[in-house]
Each structure stands twice: as C-alpha cells, then as structure tokens.
Known about the structure:
Transmembrane segments: 47-69, 81-109, 151-175, 222-248, 254-276, 288-307, 313-333, 354-375, 381-397
Number of strands: 0
Pfam families: MFS_1
Domain Major facilitator superfamily (MFS) profile: 11-402
Keywords: Membrane, Transmembrane, Transmembrane helix
CATH topology: Growth Hormone, Chain: A
GO molecular function, one term: transmembrane transporter activity
Strand content: under 5%
Largest sheet: none
Number of helices: 20
Structural class: mainly alpha
CATH architecture: Up-down Bundle
Helix content: over 70%
Radius of gyration: 20 Å
CATH superfamily: MFS general substrate transporter like domains
Amino acid sequence: MKRAAPDWLVPIAAIFVLQTIASFLSRFIPIIAPAVSEEFGWSGSSIGYLTAANSLGGLAVLIAGSALFKRIGGMRTLQLTLFAGAVSMAFFLHPAVGVALAACFVMGLSNGAANPAGSEVLQRFSPPGKRNLVFSIKQAGVPLGGVIAGLLIPVMVAYAGWRTALFVCAGLVVLPTMLTWRVSARIDEAPAIGRPWLGRPSLQSLRALDAPLRSLLRSRGLLKISVVGSLFAVSQSCWFTFTVVYLIDRLGFSLGQAGVVFAVMQTGGVIGRIGLGWLSDYLRSATASLSLAALFSAATTALLGASTPQWPLWTIVLLAFIAGSSAASWNGVQIAEVARRSPPDQISETAAGSSILVNLVNMLAPTAFAAFVAVTGRYDYAFAAAGACTLLVLAVLPRDKKPGA
C-alpha cells in the first residue's frame, strides 16, 4: 500500500520554492549590474546603492505589510510581490540609475515578505523536534537562488546579452510562482470574516506600523537574537553585494569566473544552512552553532579583503565555499530561535521585526561599504570592518532557551 505524503511536506516545499525565487530575484542585481554599468557608464559603487535600494524595498514591506500578511495571507503576499518584482526588471532597460534604483526597490519587496510568510507557515507545519532543520532547509533556498543566479546569468549575458537575460530571469520568477498559486489557498490562515483585505488607512492601522519592532521587546532574549541576525548580516551583505565586482575589478576575474565563485559561495550556503540547522538540533544549542558560524564568518570576510591577484584560483574558490558555509549559514537557526521565543500569536510580527533589523543592515552596510571604497579605494579595510562587526555576535548571543521555557 502506497504511503501518503506527510501533511507538512507540501507547505515546506511551497515555501522553499518561493524563498528560492525571492532570493534569485535579489541575487540577480549584483551579478548583472557590472554588465549594465559598463554599457550605461554607471560607477562601480552604484552596485552598493542598487543593493541598498533592494533592501529598502524589503524593509518597506516588513514595516507596512504586517496588516497585509494577516488580511490576505503570508504566502499570497509573497507571491504578489514576486510578480511585481518580475515586472520591475524591465526598468533596467532604461539608462538612468534612478530608474534602476526604483526597480531594485520593487524587487526587494519579495525579500521582505519571505521571512514572515515562511516563519508563520513553518511554525505551524514543522514536525516536532526538527524545527531548526526545517527552518534551515527553507532558508537554504536563499543561497540556492544565488547558485542559480551565479551559474545562469553570466552565461546568458555572455551568449545572448544582458537584455535577453533580463526577460529570461523574469520568466524564471513568474513560472514557479504561478505553480504555487493554488497551494497558498490551502496553507494561508483564513482572514477574519467580514474583514476586507484592502481598506482605508486608519489611525489604528498607522500606529500598527511599529508593531513588528515593539514585538521584539517582549523579552530580552528575543531582542538579542534579533540583533544577532543584524550583526551576521553585515558580512553576509558585503559578500553577496561585492564579491563579483571585487573579483572583476581587483583580482582580474572575468564575469564568468566571478559568477562561478559566487555560485560556489552560495552552494556553501545551502550546505551550511542545512548543516547548521542539523547541528543546532543535535546539540540542542543555537548558541553553540551560531558562535561557530560567527568565528568563521569574521575570518573569511577579512581574508577576502586581504586576497591579491597572486592568490591561486583554488584558494579563492575554497574561501568562497567556507564563507558561504558560515557567513550565509546562520539564517535558519536564527529565524527558528526568533519563532521559538515568540508568543504563538505573534510569530509573524516578531519575524517581521527581526527581519526589519536585518534589512536595515542590508541597506546600510553595502551603502557604507561602497562609500568607503569610493573615498579610500581600500577593499581590505572595508572587508575587515565587516568581519569585526560580525564577531560581535559572540558578545550579544543570548543563552539557549529550552523548549517550553
């Protein structure tokens, strides 16, 4: 007799697919930007500002989208923002940087919606005793989207041009999102009867804009684990944003070679996120696993800035893989800890609040990095400073909260 699939499999698979597509949409920017910048004459530092605009879009939906999550559901919100992001990719055809910044803002909406939507669904459907692993599997979609972008986009740019790559990438966002459309109707919690999903803003709804951040103040440990995520995001955002342009401008790599290194880094992130989630469940300690990730993240980030054109290719590839396994591995465990420390009816709010802090860093860190490099020309100091920020995780990490505590 054929066994039926477990009830949690479809929700986890659907969230994983949408998370991967949202990540692909954001990783698209730093990979295709060098080709666009070269044709339109944008400065090299523009990549940092485009990435910051993308993070600002994520921040906007986290601050203002809490009511929308509750009214139409987290998955539906994520799907709609993905469609909007795919459409906005066409604006890269305009040579003005301002138009590209606006497009990046819209593309960032889905990145902001992904964590609250995923946290609420996975907290309801995750099998007991495997929450860290399940959250980490979902978050493995982030670097997986980067792997796809790093391997696919440089090839398309080389053989068909970046304009063709734009439209192909838009199709890659739209198609999987359409395939999950009917699933969200079964997974999202139904809104309250008689409550319209759109309505006129009221004073109460405006006051609710700060609800995600206020929800983090419910306990000291909840705020600390949220700050931990923002400290990890410093190194991660710099790796994600500047690896390709750094390899091309300072180490003499081609776009294809830099794309492969980027994909290797993201592959390390897939393995690292799942591995760190398993380790946290095995040790029953998020503190131990996140401390290990912080040490390796800080070291690899500083080493990237110290690299020179004389370093053999294999050392850069190895460094990128280790960085992916550490600097990009923390998300699942940290998000699971936020959900575990949250009141059951406040998971989407606390997930949004934690993500707001991370997105603030994702916006500010690349901007500061780009400005510092533009003024000083010193990538080594910039990467070393990013690594030092992430090392502060060791001082901020809260003690593990035992189940039921």
